Amino acid sequence: MAVQTSVNILAINPGSSSLKFGLYEFSEPLRKRCHPETAEGHEVPEDVEGPPEYLQDGSSHGHPLRSATEAGGPSTVLSPSGASAAQDDRRASAAQDESRPLLSGNLPVAADKMEDAVREVLARANSRDIHAVGCRVVHGGAEFSAPTIVDDNVLAKISALAELAPLHNPIAVSAINAVRHALPSIPIVAVFDTAFHRSLPPVAWHYAIPDDLNIRRYGFHGISYAWVSRRLTAHIGPGKRAVIAHLGNGASVCALHDGVSIDTSMGLTPAEGLVMGTRSGDLDPGAILYLLRNGKSSAEIDDLLNHRSGLAALSGGTSDMKKIVEAAYPKSASSDAEAGDPRAILALDVFCYRISKYIGAYAAALGGLDALVFTAGIGEHAPLVRERICANLNFLGIDIDEALNRATRSDERPISRGPVSIFVIPTNEELQLANETYQLV
Q1: What angle do CA 256, 238, 82 make, to 5 degrees?
Q2: Taking the CA of residue 69 as centre, how many other CA atoms within 13 Å lie in the half-sphere pointing to its CB?
Q3: At a CB cut-off of 8 Å and minimum separation 6, what does 403 contact?
Q4: Active-site annotation holder among 193, 258, 263, 370
């Protein structure tokens, strides 16, 4: 019998309009094999014309985290599973140090075609053994506080949570079902965006409403925050107070002390907090009551606040930040000179203002600030947005270096010249998914 010397983990990250994925090889064999039926609670085929663009080899996504020793030592805060964060960090760092990317990509796909897209990814990877699959699930509710092996019961609970994440949880269920049908003997791990924020203190997760309603704040983008926070620790060491701004079509900010989430801008659902591509973010509940009293149905309001608000509403039609910046400043995408479309200018101003306000509030919650990080599509690629956000935060020691900020680079990099460290750190949810899956199985 052949001895298993490595393990391949497939990470799938289903979204409302795309499927991101990565296949990673870990040099150590699985410590235990978790078959879906027994779990309790808890070479690419060659085409003549070459693979499509979304299946290009993902070497740029495989950079491992430095070990806990190199990073200056791990945290001692308890994780939701009961293990110390120090133990979790050591396991994660060891896994990341031993992984290498085999395949990665981003496949545009309609939500109702997610199972087909997953089958396509599995077909493209069919010349390599897949030993386990990790799938991002946006909402774990109060039920799931850590990565969990999927069985029928777990899948039913994920599906039931669709009421809290109607755009995302059903898509994750579809993706998981596709994997279960294609690879019935392979363990599948659900990794929850909400789990990272289970460390929130009561003052941060309570709403000021009666407890018997069972409505609380959960927070999202946790997989991204887990990756970026470890990368930040590799740069500046442990024990620091940081704010990470995950700015994409969906956007949020998170306050962390020593890598542990203490507050975040999204709440019960991903609709709370910052202005987003098509979501309103923070809104007076009285506005919803007003709309109901004036004949709008709950479905219409849901569509309005999730699909027809945010940057799209403010700008007059587009949620694409690159187009908004170009419309606001048509002769320079990084200068206030030659102002253009006033609606685009307003969209940019409101977006940046809301983020600056949250950063200031989180600096107060942390008792000061050691680092600010920008990540995700807008955070990584929009220097003007970063400048605007930092412009009114000099009193906190946030001082962005204009030349470093505007440099055309895509790697991890500092962009500060003041006492608060400012970084751009590309997120890597797929590798984080693979790492967490590997640690569990």
Answers
A1: 70
A2: 2
A3: none
A4: 193
Pairing of strands 421-424, 371-375: parallel
The CA-CA-CA angle for residues 83, 87, 88, to 5°, reads 80
Q: Tens digit of pLDDT for each residue in 122-148?
A: 988 876 789 999 999 999 999 999 999
79 vs 85: CA distance, rounded Å: 5
| Structure-derived torsion over alpha carbons of residues 379, 384, 387, 388, reported in degrees to the nearest 10 | -100
Which of the 8 DSSP states describes residue 400?
Answer: B
Residues 171 and 180: their CA atoms lie apart, in Å, by 14
What is the average pLDDT across 198-225?
96
Tell me the longest C-alpha to C-alpha distance in the chain: 71
Comparing 80 with 98, the larger pLDDT belongs to 98
Taking residue 156's Cβ as centre, other Cβ atoms within 10 Å add up to 11
- Is 94 a residue whose pLDDT tops 60? no
**pLDDT-above-70 percentage for the chain:** 81
Residues 239-283: tens digit of each pLDDT: 999 999 999 999 999 999 999 999 999 999 999 999 999 999 999
Which run of H or of E encompasses 191?
A: strand 188-192
- Cβ neighbours of 208 (radius 10 Å): 4
Q: Name which of 280, 270, 276 is nearest 247 in CA terms.
A: 276
Q: Which ranges of 260-407 does DSSP label H, i.e. alpha helix?
A: 285-293, 298-307, 310-315, 321-328, 342-366, 376-381, 383-391, 402-406
Distance separating alpha carbons of residues 402 and 397, to the nearest angstrom: 15
112 catalytic? Reply is no
The single residue listed with the structure tokens 């078959």 is 35
User: With b meaning 16 or more CB within 10 Å and e meaning fewer, what string describes 270-300?
Assistant: bbbbbbbbbbbbeeeeeeeeebeeeeeeeee
